[in-house]
Design goal:
- Strand 1 (22-25), helix 2 and strand 2 form a beta-alpha-beta unit.
- The chain has helices at 3-16, 30-41, 66-69, 74-80, 82-85, 90-104; strands at residues 22-25, 59-62.
- By secondary structure, the protein is mostly helical.
- It is 52% helix and 7% strand.
- Helix 2 (30-41) packs parallel to helix 6 (90-104).
- It has one domain (3-104).
- Strands 1-2 form a two-stranded parallel ribbon.
């Protein structure tokens, strides 16, 4: 997650309360999604951005997870995401995201 997005997430959490924020990711690999998820939950593991040492504990999901998929209009999901879903290792992404949530999410 780039430094600007870290800054935005931190500002939103401060303004609206961390309990009211849900981060939705769209990374193409489980490892990349996990790194971004860890950043918004446990703090920036690269020690480079505004979330270094900041444990927000935010709820975080990948757009391909069933919980998120249910939230979208089916036609919109099919048009915007379903093609990518065919080439992603969705099981790996779900496993990575679940692991991060179980370990670091506060809400």
């Amino acid at each position: 997650m780039d430094l600007e997005n870290q800054k935005r997430v931190k500002e939103f959490a401060e303004e609206y309360g961390a309990e009211n924020i849900v981060v939705v990711l769209g990374a193409a690999e489980g490892e990349a999604a996990g790194l971004a998820a860890e950043t918004v939950t446990a703090g920036d593991p690269t020690f480079a951005g505004p979330l270094t040492g900041v444990q927000l504990g935010l709820r975080v999901y990948h757009v391909c997870e069933p919980e998120m998929k249910e939230e979208f209009d089916e036609a919109v999901y099919d048009e915007q995401i379903s093609m990518m879903e065919m080439v992603l290792d969705v099981d790996d992404i779900i496993q990575e995201m679940t692991s991060i949530r179980d370990e670091f999410c506060k809400f």
